[in-house]
Amino acid sequence: MQLSIVIPLFNESDSLKELTGWITDVMQKNAISYELLFIDDGSTDDSWNTIEQICAEDPCVKALRFTKNFGKSQALHAGFKLAQGRIVATMDADLQDSPEELPEMMQLLESEQLDLISGWKRKRHDNFITKNLPSRLFNWAARKSSKIYLHDFNCGLKVYRSEVIKAIDVKGEMHRYIPVLAASAGFTKIGEKPVAHQARKYGTTKFGPERFLNGLLDLITISFVSRFGKRPMHLFGAIGVLMFILGFGFTAYLGVDKLFFNTKARLITERPEFYLALSSMILGTQLFLAGFIGELIVRNQADKDRYYISDKINLNNQQ
C-alpha cells in the first residue's frame, strides 16, 4: 500500500462525506493505493454514524472511536499505530486542508529523499487577530527554540515516511511539534511545501485561545524532553552537585575562618552566610536525588497508551 491517510476528528459530521469523496477522487485520479483512517476523538455529534455509513460503502475507509475526547495527539498516536502504508499523511477533517496537495507532497518526499514534509499555509483564511497573528508568534518561538526552520509547525497537512511515525510517540499535546519529535529521533531531513488553505465550510473551530498558552508550555516541555528525557540525571544531578559543592565549600570557608583567623568573631550559626550555604547543600542534595529518581523512572516506565477505544470498523486484523 502506498499511502495511509490519518484524519483525527471531533464533531465534524457535516464535512466527513464530502471530505471522503474528495480524497477518493484524488487517489483514483492519481492511481494511488491508499487507506483512510478516521480517528473519532470522542465526538458527541453524529460523526460516528456518518463514519459507519462511509465505511459500509468504501472498504478503503477504516475507523476507530475513543470513549471520550482524549485530544488530537492521542488520536494521531492511535492512527500512526494502525497505519500500514509506505507513506503516511495527516490532515484535518474540517475541509480546510486540500487532499489535492498529497500526490505532489508524496512525490517530493521520495524525489528529495526526505523523512517528512510539513505543509505551510502561506495564505490563511482565518481571523488575523485571533488566529493568524498568534500563530505567527508561536511559529517564530518554535523556530528559535528548536532550530528547525519551518514556517508552520501546526499545519495539519503533513506527509511522512512510515519509519518516522513508527519511531515517535505523539502524546500529551505534542501534535504541534511532530517535526521536533522526529528530529530528536534522528529524522532530520525535513522539508516544507506551501499548501492551499480553505475557509472553514461547516461548524466552528474546536481550539480556543488557550491553545497558544498550551503551545508555549508544550514547547518548553519538548525542549527539555528532547535533551534530557532519557537522561534526567545529566540536568538535575549536575545542578545538584554544583550547588552542593558551592554550599559545602562556603561552609568549610566559614569554619576555617572561625577556627584559625577570627576566633573571637560571632558564632558561625549567627552568620546569615552559613544558612545560605546550608540551604545550597540541601537543595543540591534534593536535586541530585530528583535526577536519580528520574533515571529509575525512565528505565522502568511502561509504554502505555493514554486513550481507550470504544469501537472499530474494518480494523479487526490490526492493533
Average pLDDT number: 85
Largest sheet: 8 strands, mixed
Supply the number of structural domains. 2
N→C terminal distance: 17 Å
CATH class of the largest domain: Alpha Beta
Just name the CATH architecture of the largest domain: Alpha-Beta Complex
> How many DSSP helices?
10
The helix/strand order is EHEHEHEHEHEHHEHHHE
Number of strands: 8
Structural class: alpha/beta
- CATH T-level topology of the largest domain: Spore Coat Polysaccharide Biosynthesis Protein SpsA, Chain A
Shape: elongated
* CATH homologous superfamily (4th level) name of the largest domain: Spore Coat Polysaccharide Biosynthesis Protein SpsA, Chain A
Instruction: Going across the biggest sheet, name each strand in turn.
Output: 7-5-6-4-1-2-3-8
Indicate the low-confidence ranges by residue numbers: none
State Rg: 26 Å
Query: What share of residues are in beta strands?
Result: 5-15%
Q: Helix fraction?
A: 40-55%
